[in-house]
Amino acid sequence: MNTNKKSILTLAFFSILAVSCTPNDQIRKTVTEIIRENPSIVFEAIEKEPEKFLEVVQVAAQSAKKKIADKARAQEAKQLEDAFNNPLKPDITKATASIGPTDAPITLIEYSDFECPFCKKGMDTVEELRKKYKGKIKFVYKHLPLSFHPNAMPAAKYFEAIKLQSNAKAFEFHDLVFKNQSGLRGGERFLKNTAKEIGVDLEKLAIDLNSEKVRSAIEKDIAEARKFGIQGTPGFIINGVPVKGAYPAEYFEQIIEKLKEKGKLTL
Known about the structure:
alpha+beta
């Protein structure tokens, strides 16, 4: 576009503003047309005052981040409120791996990946909550091994195979793997040595590792997590309320207090 045409378009735009009450969408449309016809208008403005341009971009980015964060918080608050009124109902049977009183008023379920670093943090949070609500919380461990963690599925199989021998030993295995998570790089050798350390029957373990019972248990956990919209790890459900991510213990405590306020929990 030549300079004369550019000037005519610019003059036309300012004329609209001077002689009429133009709707914002019409102004936006006119500006867009001018810039589309001659994008050099923007480039020239940037070249003239690059520092000012960067300042405006930074302010706009901060504003956008705040809006996104505010929207996410509002959405999270709504989802929490919906969960309080319509709690999720995970499947828990006698065969489900759990630790703590079966009739505990608080049930904390975790969908986890043994190789996930955030799940290691989640383990610390679970331990903190179990100490704070000792005798009043049941912890249920379920699987969500992620495809990009090559040792997560083998570790899940070991846990389930060990559980067929002893629920208590399965949780011993759980604790040792997370406390020595870097050892997972050793793959099968690390898993087998950990199982040996807690004194399981290694011959039975070798048979059970690839059994239908083990495979089915893990597949059911994965399917349930997806049904509840839990895609990443760790994912938790506390008395029907979902918590997606490695939040600190205080966050779970707030949910517990809210459940008490709503008369949905008595401790």
